[in-house]
Amino acid sequence: QSPTTSLAASGAAPARASAVDARVVLDDVAIRRALVRIAHEVVERNETLRDLYLVAIPNGGVPLARIIAAQVREITGLEVPVGILDTTLYRDDLTALGERPPLRRTEMPSAVDDRVVVLVDDVVSTGRTIRAAMDALMDFGRPRSVQVVGLVDRGHRELPIKIDFVGKNVPTQREERVVLRGLSGGLEGPLEVVILDGEKGGA
Predict the structure, then answer these.
(1) Across the chain, what does the average pLDDT equal?
(2) Cβ within 8 Å of residue 160, ≥6 positions away
(3) Residues with Cβ < 8 Å from 185, sequence gap 6 or more?
(4) What is the spatial distance between Cα 134 and Cα 102, in angstroms, rounded to a whole number?
(5) What's the sign of the alpha-carbon dihedral 127, 57, 23, 199?
């Protein structure tokens, strides 16, 4: 039995050896279990499912939104569109960063007018990324409503942003960094959420 198989079978989440001290707070099994629950909650909350539109905040929100869409399809039989929305140019800390960070892709298959948009992010902290996403969203129309999925809510909110669907609340120190990462290096295969010590982070 491989270490990955043992991890999935036991439900435990021991830290993997790394150059940086890391604590695993959600393994792949726990992540998928949380997303199945969130998909059910999204379906239960929204009566007009045909108006749903999942919008992922890259990079971590992309695989999560796709998993949620697949679960909604399994539950209801409906195909929910999935868009990808880069928030880089809408952040309120661009000036403080000194140089502009690289742009990431935006792929919105249609306008969001009169749709129930569900923003999907991997880790929510200060709320500034979610606010930037809401600002960016308005370039694609006027949604009927906006809901927010956060796989991990680590606290330290600086703006009054509400997370409607939370995978797990994870208390952290401000200097810690919470990261969604793939076991194989990308975000296409098995995933895990880890806390990295000694690195400031969180949006």
Answers:
(1) 87
(2) 127
(3) none
(4) 20
(5) negative
pLDDT in tens, 152-179: 999 999 999 999 999 999 999 999 999 9
Q: What are the pLDDT digits (tens) for 119-151?
A: 999 999 999 999 999 999 999 999 999 999 999
> Between helices 61-76 and 28-45, what is the axis angle to 10°?
60
Amino acid symbol at 188: E
DSSP state, residue 168: E
Looking at residue 187, its pLDDT comes to: 84
Q: Which candidate, 85, 83, 80, places its Cα nearest to that of 52?
A: 80
- Tokens 């006027």 correspond to what residue? 142
The residue type found at 19 is: A
Describe the crossing of helices 28-45 and 3-10 by its angle, rounded to 10 degrees.
50
CB atoms within 10 A of CB 106: 17
pTM of the full predicted structure? Answer: 0.84
pLDDT at 54: 98
The SS3 of residue 127 is: coil
Closest CA to 73 of 58, 59, 54, 56: 54
Q: Please compute, for residue 86, the number of CA atoms within 13 A of its CA located in the half-sphere on the CB side.
A: 9
Element (H, E) at 191: strand 191-196
